[in-house]
From TrEMBL:
Coiled coil: 35-86
Record region (Disordered): 1017-1036
Native source species: Hibiscus sabdariffa
Taxonomy, superkingdom: Eukaryota
Protein name listed in UniProt: LIM zinc-binding domain-containing protein
Residue ranges crossing the lipid bilayer per the database entry: none
Domain LIM zinc-binding, first and last residues per copy: 957-1021
UniProt KW Endoplasmic reticulum keyword: no
Gene3D superfamilies for this protein: 1.20.5.4130, Cysteine Rich Protein (2.10.110.10), Helical domain of apoptotic protease-activating factors (1.10.8.430), P-loop containing nucleotide triphosphate hydrolases (3.40.50.300), Ribonuclease Inhibitor (3.80.10.10)
Record keywords: ATP-binding, Coiled coil, Leucine-rich repeat, LIM domain, Metal-binding, Nucleotide-binding, Plant defense, Repeat, Zinc
Record-linked InterPro entries: Apaf_helical, LRR_dom_sf, LRR_R13L1-DRL21, NB-ARC, P-loop_NTPase, RX-like_CC, Rx_N, WHD_DRP
Pfam families in the record: LRR_R13L1-DRL21, NB-ARC, Rx_N, WHD_DRP
Length: 1060
């Protein structure tokens, strides 16, 4: 792994040197000689890097040699950066910059710097001879494939934990064999990695396996004819293990020959990629889960104690079980660590492994590809960091972004990353394996430093990459002014760290080698012009309102991430000078009012999440024309587009890699500009903004046309998964029911829409086949939502929200609903919905107009309901609404103004875990029978219920030590004051009920309860609660809590010493 990074860096340097010579730079004689010498030396070094990587794990000297080489390569890369930076600053092309007409001083300085770098590299290159390194690039790939080959010879006694899966697969194959005529392909999704899916090689291997001898046929056609001859009419079972091939064409060519087999023939495929499983399988694929705890321990014991060693040491078992727990049920990790520990008999050695000090053991640890690290990362963020640090090698004309995608895919195949999720907007997220993270840290730990609370704040002198992170309330002071020269600095501004920097500009100027800087708003006004080598810059926070113009001078900048800069209003005017910029992340920059002129000149730009259309030349929508954008794009200020020709120049239809497109006629989501724009040509403009058919998410907001464009009515975007429409004047919806992949549909503020009928469904036998979530809000004129006879509609609809549709009187029957939320619907509509949706698990009812009686029988047939939220309805204590809700876990009553005590059916809610009461002004008591039958209730929240003066006795319990009466739930909230059972102790014996408080949020007990000396003395006798000394708001709240508990605080007070 270390060599892979050095190799990428060396490759980048060679590419930079090549570009200097390709551009025919007229270099001074000595400077050209030095650069040519460097090129030869690095080419020689590159040839032995793979061998050095293989040998470094057994040779500390080679490991040090690689580190020295990396540092020398870093230094040279900085020198080459300065070449180009100085040329740009002088406003000259490289071809003339070094000509005799330019000052000789700079050429002399650069010659000395290059010579110094060359001499350093020469010394390092000469040292390679004593290591006897062999030349050869690319051997690792060949060896890797051989190492991953599998065999059909398996000792079944060693197979652990897959008995159920095996039984199900065998049963399925035998069942299908009797009545399935075609070839059945069964896919199993798990861990793995066969990436060489060579059709000819596989065909030959199958033939040789059948015939039991080698086959000399070399061409594919005769090979496949030979295979067909062997299979025709015969029943067979073939297993393809570890498949990574995503090419349907390759699979189809092989499958064609396999289809000649007899009835009941089957193929089993194991793979890690769902995409491969879906492509190859003819039946739903089976995903393998993690091993159970028992099976994990059995596999671990098999690996460690297979020969009977160490088994008698009882002290090792608890440590071993903790190690197995870290492996997360992933067999590969268990087997790898088990193999390492099989030769370790000392308890200290096992403790080292448990505490992640396994990396100094055997190089077999490089096979550990397991255990998830619970940190979600974005693929583009990773690629941006890789590019910035030179970890992505140059390969011909291939763009670094594309090369980064290839590397990400390869690391995924090798199980570095897991839980890969591609979101509808094109964002790809993943998680990293914990052990892989620790392996990487062990390999590059000498230059990577992570600081967290509770750890020593010493930063090693060798550190190049510093990450400061915290999730704790601990406050630490880090003196960044004394840091060594860094390449990466990432400051987690959400933490409680205090950064001791009195002069950020001075600090920045001293870190001239930085390539990655991720910081908060405290740096937003810093002059960045000294960071000539910076490739990655991230700023965030509400305090960022404008960026310093010096950012425009960062000519090497590749990533500018401004996500969550909510108050940012403008970008630097000279942003067009950032010619190497690839990612410009403006997500959630909702106050951005304009774009800098000439943004279309950034032809390397691949990610631009937001574009604000301006009125002036150089800021129009046509700036998007030549940009090959990917992922998501939000275009605001469309009211400034003059005509359809200008809109068409955005060239959206050619941007095939866009996945999400948002079109806003305002300048921003919350801007009032353009609200009253002339909308005569809105329809023409939207028609000209037709996206590529590959689009998956579409949002249109503040569009003032009366009809949708042809590309929507004709459904020229067949791959849409999510649609959001805010179109006040449109009275007809497109036939969205025809969209096979549509999962989420949101209809907002369509005030002209009167009905949703056949035109909405389209002429399909099954309309909306994939729709899962439907939201209809503020459709003030919508009266009817009807269905088509003989048509199956909404088969998968599970969530429905209807809000502020006062005229709606007719709705379809929706039997599949699981979640329903209704704002302001009349009782007739509500009854109709509830009558058919009998499988609801969540129901939220809100009434914001005149309080309405809620029908008693509304929930009669809803035994599956788990969450119920009633807001603003008239609900009386005698109501039987809660009867028969045997599955209810969460009940929220909000502004039920006439409710004096909780409905009588409350005592039957044996599964109720959470009860929340907000703004029930008439509430006097919780229930007639108290809460004694609510055996599962663990959380009670009371807000703004002014007449409630006491809690029932059932909120008390016996002290576990002295059996005195103490309190209460796991969690109690009274008017924003949070109490946890773990924070209370018995006054009589000072026993904390559940030990130390681990709630994370420390309640303000000092203010809620006045604990005085007289109270402390009460431990010796009868405890008494001290009276408040002041009538402050906090103490009024404290007194209210005391009153709610009645006599409780006399027996129970917070354990002030019990805080963590």
């Amino acid at each position: 792994m270390a060599d892979a990074l050095v190799s990428a860096l060396v490759s980048t340097i060679l590419n930079n040197l090549d570009s200097l010579f390709r551009e025919e730079v007229r270099l001074a004689g000595s400077l050209k000689t030095e650069l040519e010498s460097l090129q030869r030396t690095f080419t020689t070094i590159q040839a032995v890097l793979h061998d050095a990587e293989q040998k470094q794990w057994k040779s500390e000297a080679i490991k040090i040699w690689l580190r020295n080489l990396q540092q020398a390569a870093y230094d040279l890369e900085d020198v080459l950066d300065d070449f180009q930076s100085q040329a740009r600053e002088r406003g000259s092309k490289l071809s003339t910059f070094f000509s005799p007409q330019n000052p000789l001083l700079f050429r002399s300085i650069m010659t000395r710097r290059v010579k110094a770098a060359r001499e350093k590299v020469d010394v390092i290159a000469a040292e390679r001879i004593k290591f006897h390194l062999e030349t050869g690039v690319g051997e690792a790939v060949i060896e890797g494939n051989k190492d991953r080959e599998t065999s059909s010879l398996v000792d079944e006694s060693e197979v652990i934990g897959r008995a159920d899966e095996k039984g199900e697969m065998v049963s399925m194959i035998l069942s299908n064999a009797t009545h399935h005529d075609g070839l059945s392909v069964y896919a199993i999704c798990g861990m793995g990695g066969l990436d060489d899916f060579d059709v000819k090689r596989l065909t030959k291997a199958i033939v040789e396996s059948i015939e039991g001898k080698s086959c000399d046929i070399q061409d594919l056609d005769p090979l496949q004819r030979r295979l067909v001859k062997q299979l025709v009419g015969k029943q067979f079972l073939i297993v393809f293990d570890d498949v990574w091939n995503e090419s349907r064409d390759k699979w189809d060519r092989l499958k064609q020959a396999l289809q000649s087999g007899g009835r009941g023939s089957a193929v089993i495929v194991t793979t890690r990629l769902e995409k491969v499983a879906l492509m190859m399988a003819t039946v739903p694929f089976r995903r393998l889960g993690c091993l159970s705890d028992d099976d994990s321990w059995s596999l671990f014991k098999q690996r460690v104690f297979g020969m009977g060693t160490n088994e008698g040491n009882a002290d090792l078992e608890p440590i071993g079980r903790q190690i197995v727990q870290r492996c997360g049920g992933v067999p590969l990790a268990i087997k790898a660590i088990g193999s390492i520990l099989s030769s370790k008999s000392q308890e200290s050695e096992w403790l080292n492994v448990r505490d992640s000090e396994i990396w100094e053991l055997e190089d077999e640890v490089n096979r550990i590809l397991a255990v998830l690290r619970d940190y979600v990362m974005e693929k583009d963020e990773l690629i941006g960091l890789w590019m910035a640090n030179g970890f992505i090698p140059s390969r011909g004309q291939l763009d670094l972004h594309d090369m980064g995608n290839e590397i990400f895919s390869e690391l995924t195949r090798r199980s570095f990353f897991q839980e890969i999720n591609e979101h509808v907007d094109g964002t790809v997220t993943c998680k990293m394996h914990d052990l892989i993270h620790d392996v990487a840290t062990s390999i590059k730990g000498y230059e990577c430093c992570l600081i967290e609370p509770g750890e020593r704040l010493e930063i090693p002198k060798t550190a190049c990459h510093l990450f400061v992170h915290s999730s704790s309330s601990t406050t630490n002071i880090i003196n960044l002014s004394k840091l060594p020269p860094l390449r990466s600095l990432i400051l987690d501004t959400h933490s409680r760290f205090t950064f001791n920097i009195s002069n950020p500009s001075n600090f920045i100027s001293n870190q001239k080698h930085l390539k990655v800087l991720d910081c908060g708003h405290g740096f937003s006004n810093t002059a960045f012009n000294s960071l000539k080598h910076l490739r990655y810059l991230r700023l965030r926070g509400f305090g960022v309102k404008a960026l310093p113009e010096s950012i425009s001078s960062l000519h090497n900048l590749q990533t500018l991430n401004l996500q969550w800069c909510h108050n940012l209003r403008k970008l630097p005017k000279g942003s067009k000078n950032l010619k190497n910029l690839k990612y410009l992340d403006l997500r959630d920059c909702n106050e951005l009012i304009s774009m800098p002129v000439g943004l279309g000149q950034l032809t390397c730009l691949r990610k631009l999440s937001k574009f604000v259309v301006g009125k002036d030349k150089g800021g129009g929508i046509d700036e998007l024309k030549e940009l090959a954008l990917e992922g998501e794009l939000s275009i605001t200020g469309l009211c400034n587009v003059k005509n359809s020709t200008e809109a068409k120049n955005a060239n959206l239809i050619e941007k095939k890699n866009l996945r999400s497109l948002e079109l806003y006629w305002r300048s921003g989501k919350y801007s009032e500009s353009c609200c009253h724009h002339q909308h005569e040509n809105d329809e023409e403009i939207l028609d000209a903004l037709q996206p590529h058919p590959s689009l998956k998410k579409l949002c249109i907001t503040d569009y003032q046309g009366v009809r949708f464009p042809n590309w929507m009515m004709d459904l020229l975007l067949p791959n849409l998964v999510e649609i959001e429409l805010h179109c006040k004047r449109c009275d007809q919806l497109p036939p969205l029911g025809k969209l096979r992949f549509l999962k989420v549909l949101s209809i907002w503020e369509m005030g002209a829409l009167k009905r949703m009928d056949s035109g909405f469904y389209g002429d399909m036998e099954s309309s909306f086949p994939s729709l899962e979530v439907l939201t209809i809000v503020r459709a003030s004129c919508l009266e009817e939502w009807t269905t088509m006879n003989g048509t199956k509609h909404f088969p998968r609809l599970s969530s429905l929200t209807i809000a502020h549709c006062p005229k709606m009187v007719k709705l379809p029957m929706l039997h599949s609903l699981k979640e329903l939320e209704v704002f302001g619907a009349n009782v007739t509509v509500l009854n109709a919905l509830m009558m058919n949706a009998t499988n609801l698990t969540s129901l939220r009812l809100h009434e914001y107009n005149e309080p309405t009686n809620i029908p008693d029988g509304l929930l009669r047939n809803h035994k599956h309901l788990e969450t119920l939220w009633i807001n603003g309805f008239i609900l009386k204590s005698s109501s039987v609404l809660l009867d028969n809700l045997s599955s209810l876990k969460c009940l929220i009553l909000h502004h039920c103004s006439q409710l004096e005590s909780l409905p009588r059916g409350l005592q039957n809610l044996s599964c109720l875990e959470t009860l929340r009461l907000y703004g029930c002004e008439s509430l006097i008591s919780l229930a007639v029978n108290g809460l004694q039958d609510l055996s599962s209730l663990s959380s009670l929240e009371i807000q703004s219920c002014g007449k409630l003066t006491s809690l029932p006795e059932r909120t008390q319990q016996k002290c576990i030590a002295c059996y005195k009466t103490v309190c209460l739930f796991d969690k109690l909230t009274v008017d924003n004051r949070v109490f946890h059972k773990a924070c209370f102790c018995c006054h009589h014996c000072r026993t904390t009920l559940k030990g130390c408080c681990t709630a994370g949020r420390r309640p303000h007990y000092d203010q809620l309860f006045k604990r005085t000396d007289s109270l402390d003395k009460s431990f010796e006798g009868t405890p008494k609660m001290a009276k408040p000394e002041k009538n402050t708001e906090d103490e009024q709240n404290a007194q209210k809590v005391v009153n709610l508990f009645g006599g409780m605080p006399y027996d129970c007070v917070p354990n002030r010493e019990g805080y963590c």
